[in-house]
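__Record contents__

***
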Amino acid sequence: MFSPLNRHLLLEEVEEIPVEKEESLVLVPDDYSIKKSPHDIYKILKLAPDCEKLKEEHVNCKIVVDESMVQKITIGEERYYLVLENYVYGTF
């Protein structure tokens, strides 16, 4: 399994709760999309050994992070999500 280093966290995407799409009474262009939040929720899978703020008890916790700071890395068939611990806004 991939092991994060240099204060990175290995993450897992948390499935979004599907929102029922309502029929629009206003015509919009086909390529229009609703603006996505700049934040997202992930679950911590593994911590780098040198993490200072987050500890082992935070593994499996859900966190809120700045989506633009999440690094998506593909190695072979596997996809990994990493973020530096200082981009975590909070846990729950």
Remarks:
- The beta strands are 8-13, 39-47, 62-66, 71-75, 78-84, 88-91.
- The chain has a mean pLDDT of 88.
- Residues 1-15+36-92 form a domain with the 10 Kd Chaperonin, Protein Cpn10; Chain O fold (CATH 2.30.33.40).
- DSSP finds no helices and six strands in the chain.
